[in-house]
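in:
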């Protein structure tokens, strides 16, 4: 059986604006196809921070100009971002596959993830989204029941980041993967939804994309989770004179370093936590955290930090 790999793309792999994204996905496709050439079954997930913020701001501005257009919920903004990022990614990967003489269909699945309505994150939202607002606009959002916070650049909306419980479309993702397709799924952490009887209701939240990547890898029973980020290796004492890059880290060491506060909450910490959760007690599963490399040298041990039992 082929080994299964989930590749989680970070911001550097996608860019921010439409032209940046177009160019970035071409570079990213080279790295992804290199993994495919190594005969892995590949599922891809990705970040969407700048994109979902841009969509939310655009739709909010449209509502301000014309009341006929309702404010777009975060779950719908996430769905929009999954669609347009997936569009660029799947076309770039398809082109790169064909240029190397490989025929494999590439599909994007709009993916929902269930969350707990009583998750503590809903009571303490922390994720800043969208562009700055005036104080009056912020108070208007507050009156609607949305959370806002004052930052150095102005008032901004903040939303919850609940933990994902399950992936709704996991059977479809598995079916496409087993049929030999390259699958793009759970982009931006997926659309967070609440289960209400036999219906799914969008939640006013965003899911941490690294946490969702770990869950996706677990539900697919993947052998390897590759988290692509902006640094070559995980480092202890990052940014300090005694910074120490790590080639390998055990789960036990990772838990120890997290307890010591070695990793920053908004950047490396969720990646390490996702790695620990995915590996669990498995002696087989591994996580590679590394920088995007079109040559795929990280799998050969030349780059990146490998995490295992």
């Amino acid at each position: 059986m082929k080994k299964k790999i989930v590749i989680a793309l970070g911001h550097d792999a996608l860019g921010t604006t439409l032209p940046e994204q177009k160019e970035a996905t071409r570079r990213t496709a080279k790295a992804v196809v290199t993994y495919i050439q190594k005969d892995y079954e590949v599922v891809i997930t990705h970040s969407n921070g700048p994109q979902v913020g841009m969509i939310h701001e655009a739709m909010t501005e449209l509502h301000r100009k014309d009341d006929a257009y309702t404010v777009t919920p975060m779950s719908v903004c996430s769905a929009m971002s999954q669609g347009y990022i997936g569009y660029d990614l799947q076309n770039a990967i398809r082109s790169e596959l064909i240029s190397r003489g490989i025929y494999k269909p590439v599909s994007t699945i709009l993916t929902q993830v269930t969350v707990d309505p009583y998750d503590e994150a809903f009571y303490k939202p922390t994720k800043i989204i969208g562009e700055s607002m005036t104080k009056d606009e912020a108070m208007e959002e507050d009156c609607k029941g949305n959370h806002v916070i004052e930052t150095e650049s102005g008032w901004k909306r903040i939303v919850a980041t609940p933990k994902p419980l399950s992936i709704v479309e996991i059977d479809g993702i598995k079916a496409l993967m087993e049929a030999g397709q390259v699958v793009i799924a759970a982009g931006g952490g997926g659309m967070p939804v609440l289960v209400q009887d036999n219906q799914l209701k969008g939640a006013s939240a965003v899911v941490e994309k690294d946490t969702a990547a770990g869950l996706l890898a677990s539900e697919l029973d993947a052998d390897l989770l590759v988290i692509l980020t902006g640094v070559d290796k995980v480092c202890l004492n990052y940014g300090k004179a005694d910074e120490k890059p790590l080639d390998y880290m055990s789960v036990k060491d990772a838990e120890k370093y997290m307890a010591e506060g070695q990793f920053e909450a908004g950047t490396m910490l969720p990646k390490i936590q996702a790695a620990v959760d995915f590996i669990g007690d498995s002696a087989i599963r591994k996580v590679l955290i590394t920088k995007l490399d079109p040559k795929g040298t990280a799998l050969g041990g030349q780059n990146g930090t490998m995490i295992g039992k």
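note: Residues 74-99 form the longest helix (26 residues).
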